[in-house]
Every structure is written in structure tokens, then in C-alpha cells.
Amino acid sequence: MSELTGSVPPYYRDVYECLCQNDQISQNVLTQLLTKSGLDRAVLGKIWECIECKSGSINRSNLYKALALVAFAQQGKPVSANLLGNFAGQELPKPNLGDVSELRKLLHQTKKSPTELDFTYHECCAFDSIDITLVPEKKGIFLKHSEYEITSRRNNSTVKRRYNDFVAFHELLQQFFPYRMIPRLPPKKVMLSSDHDFIEARRKSLRRFLHIISRHPAMYNSALLQFFLTYSGHEVVHKIKEQYRGSPDEYARSPVAAQAKDLVPPETQAEFAVSKEQIRQITSHVVKVRDMANRISERSKGNATDML
């Protein structure tokens, strides 16, 4: 790519000082910066092809090149590395990316790790408190079954549920949140175990299960959980499946899904092209090695036959 030959305006230096960390600017920060330009993704992709970002970060020179190309593109000029060489002795144009103070907010946002929660552990525990007690009298005329009385502090509700209700609830949780780790339910029955001990152990396990779900940052506020903890009618299995079966999962309901294409960095296509070429070369070399091994094997068989 052509080197910068024009003079650098003060805005370029301000942007560099605002975004620079350890003499490098991360690829993620630059992606967010270029997105603020309002240019089409195809144009941003061409700008990425014109700068060097092989190690996941760029230096001061490449940042200036990116800013200059953004300014040229905003003026309606086609993106090309030759544009920079035509500005010898002239001041490079200033791109429209907003005030430097807004860029500081951008850097602050990109510093946050997506693996960090917005809640502390104690805040998650305060989402809800669940208590489960065993109803003393078993239900059913011929096939007796146990019922559990569930009390939710957050919903200020008390409902009765049987084990099959938990099974239906668990199936729908896996449908609603396919990308989350849903804890397993305790077994319905364990052989060689006294009835009282097993029922008490299952009650504790179900309470622990509901605590995990009701205190999960992504699930504690779901309509499915609210229904399970508040619905006081009959035929819970039928009602909950009728209400929520076929509902879209967590990602489809998220506002991010509507703008998923916009969240893909503009340099992705260029990186895909590089990766595709590298895979092609590796595949070609592996095929050559395989053919060589086959020929060596055939020659060895021929030599062994001649020795007999």
C-alpha cells in the first residue's frame, strides 16, 4: 500500500491519542470506529483490504491511512491505495466520525469483556428465592403421585406442581435457551431406595434446579419461568406446552437477530478469502504428500516382490 505523503491534520492525532493503547489499536476498536462513518459494508471492506491488520491490531501509520480512506470515501471517491499517493504536500481530508469525546465512549464500551456479567453474584441471588415443600397427602386415585408446593418470593406466588410438570418445563427451557447450560432434573425414581429418602432428596434437587433457573441472568425474567411459578390452574403440562411450544428461541427473540449482518465486521470477507486460499494451499500440499507416500509404498511392494 502507498505510504502517506500528505500532511496529517490534528484530528488524526487526536483520534490516535484517544484510541491508542500500548502503541497499538485493536482490530475491534478500529471496526467500531469505521462503522461510525456510515459507509456501506462493501466500501468498509475495501478499506480493510488497503490497510495491514494481520496481528489483530494496527499502528499509528495504518490508522492514519484508514482515516484518510474513510474521508475520501465520504467525499464519494472510489477507495484505492493510490489515493494516498496523490496528496503529496497537501493536508489529508478529515473524516466525519464525530467528536473525540464520543470516541472515548466507544473505547470504553469495547474494553468490556463479553464474558463478564453485568450483575454480581449477590445481585443474582437476590433475583428470587424459591422454597419447595412436599404436600403430605399423595394425589391420584389408582396411581399415587407426590406434589410439591412452590413459593416464589419475587412473584409472591404459591403453586402446586408434580414431577411431570417439571419435565415439561425442562423440555421447554431447552427449546427456549438452546445455547445455555440447563441443569438436569433429578431422576423420577431410583431403585433400591426407600420412598421417603428418595422423595426428600428429589425435593432438594428440584429446589436447587429452580434456584439456578430463577437466578440465571438470561432466564430469570423469561415469560416461561413466570408462567411455571404463577399459573394456578389445572393440567399444567398441557397448558404450558400449549402456551410455549413452537415459540422462537432466545436468539430469535433478541433484537440482535434483526441486525446480525450489520454486526459482522467489514474485514470478514477479506479474512475469509485469505483463509480459503490458505486452506487450498494446505490441501494441495497434503494431496502431494499422500501421492508421494502411495508411490513409495508401491515401490516398496515391488522391491519386496523382487527379493522373493
From TrEMBL:
Report the membrane topology from the UniProt record.
Answer: Peripheral membrane protein
The subcellular location is:
Membrane
Domain PX: from-to ranges: 126-235
Quote the cellular component terms of the Gene Ontology held in the record: cytosol; early endosome membrane
According to its UniProt entry, one GO biological process term is:
intracellular protein transport
Major localization listed first in the record, in broad terms: membrane
**InterPro entries this protein is in?**
EF-hand-dom_pair, PX_dom, PX_dom_sf, SNX8/Mvp1, SNX8/Mvp1_PX
Q: Which residues form the signal peptide?
A: none
- Pfam families, per the entry: PX
One of the entry's Gene Ontology molecular-function terms is:
phosphatidylinositol binding
State what protein this is by name. PX domain-containing protein
